[in-house]
Amino acid sequence: MLPAKPNALPWLGLSALVLALDQWSKAWVLKTLPEHVPVPVIDGFWNWYRTYNTGAAFSFLADAGGWQKWFFVTLALVICGLMVWMLSRTPRRDWRSAMPLALVVGGAIGNVIDRFQHGHVIDFVQWYVGEHYWPAFNIADAAVVGGAIGIGLFGLLSGKPKRSGG
What we know:
alpha+beta; four-stranded antiparallel β-sheet
């Protein structure tokens, strides 16, 4: 029997770090920030702004009546399961594949915890320029988006090896 090759499951430590930072920051927000009141961090660009999202990205399906909570929880858990499976098949040294997967797992689980604990996701980072505001987000959201960009970018850059003619 051949020895098992080291897989990328230890990258789940990054998922745990993202999850811990996300949950710590949301506890800080709930304890410290008033609801729906901007607290300037950098005038003209960045506020702390405690708000809630019952939907997905950009409040997609936020007013759907409640069923969306279970849809997004199920979707996140299925995606996390798939990504953990992918990590189990990824060589440990392949950080370009492992790191983005681990970021998505940590962020997705952070928002799933919010949905179970509060019935919605807690958002608190608000970026804007003039009167143009980006939707509020949190650490989990940033990890999911960063991971998704990494999956796409590193997937495109890795390409397929060229086959020799013949």
